[in-house]
Every structure is written in structure tokens, then in C-alpha cells.
Amino acid sequence: MTEVSAAKTVSPTSKTAGSGAVEKVPSETVRGTTTIADVVVQKIAGLATREVPGVHALGGGAARAFGALRERIPGASSSAGQGVSVEVGERQTAVDLQIVVEYGVSIAALTQAVRGNVIRAVEGMTGLEVVEVNIAVDDLHLPVEGEEDSSAHTGRVQ
Fold first, then answer.
1. Residue 62, phi then psi, degrees to nearest 5
2. Among 53, 141, 51, which Cα is nearest to 100's?
3. With contact defined as beta carbons under 8 Å apart, do 54 and 105 qualify?
4. Which residues contact 57 (CB under 8 A, 6 or more apart)?
5. What is the pLDDT of residues 52-99, one digit of tens each?
6. What distance, in Å, lies between the first and last C-alpha atoms of the chain?
7. Which domains does the chain have, with CATH numbers?
8. Which of 96, 100, 116, 139 is geometrically suited to a Cys-Cys bond with 57, CB 3.0 to 4.6 A?
9. What is the pTM of this model?
10. Angle in degrees, CA 80, 36, 53, rounded to 5
11. pLDDT of 99-118, one tens digit each?
């Protein structure tokens, strides 16, 4: 878990420490701390990744298989953090993603869009600085016959 200051320092003043070093002392005191669990950052990153068109799924093969089983159980939901791991410090975080890409999508453009969306979402919601977003493209989703848009094959008679 990480702690984020609830109040920001407006104008720090300097004072000399006993060793002669100058340390910054906030002119405004912090009135508490906010604790953000790693799983919160993980879920934010996962949801932000899924928002980008061209991302078919998150997670490696085993994680996706387990997620598919969970979806078949009534009342169970797939985890928003599936395929996402995070390392959270006091002020910074790093994100690792495993994604499956739709066939035909530019992987370079997609990963750039995912990276930007994850950084915006995590920094905007948590105030943590995202130092890196590593993306592993684990698979390519190929359309299966019959999986395409059913309205495209409307038959001769209506």
C-alpha cells in the first residue's frame, strides 16, 4: 500500500539543520494521510487498458481461461485487475500489463494509446506518478467464422 499526502505544500521555507545542510520545512502542515491499496491501482490500470479499442483481453493464457470459467458462474465477475501487476511506492507506481490484441490493429499505435490512457487514469485518480507502463503482447485474437457482426450476413429474404 502507499500513502499520499492529503495536503500539498504551498510555499516551503528553508532552515539550517544541525549538520549545516538545508532542509525544506513545509509552511502548511499535513492534516492526515490517504492510503491507496495496490489492488486499487491495479484495477484502475486494468479498466483504463480495456477502454482502448483494439485490446481484446488482458492476461496470459491461464489467467484468461480462469476468467472465462468465472464468467460462467452466476454472480461471479471477472477481475478488473486480471493481466495487470503493479508496484506502488510512496509517490510513484509502475505498471505491467499482459494484453491480447485484435488482429489487424497496429501494435505500436495500440500500446502507445494504452500507455497514455493508463498513465492519465492512474495519475488522475491517485496522484501517484506513473514511472513506467510495460506491455507484453501475449496473443493475437483472430476472428472466428460466425463471430463477426451478424448483421453483415442478412440473407436474401427478410
1. -65, -40
2. 141
3. yes
4. 64, 83, 99, 100, 141
5. 999 999 997 654 454 554 455 555 455 778 999 999 999 999 999 999
6. 59
7. 1-34 (no CATH), 37-143 (3.30.70.1350)
8. 100
9. 0.67
10. 30
11. 999 999 999 999 999 999 99
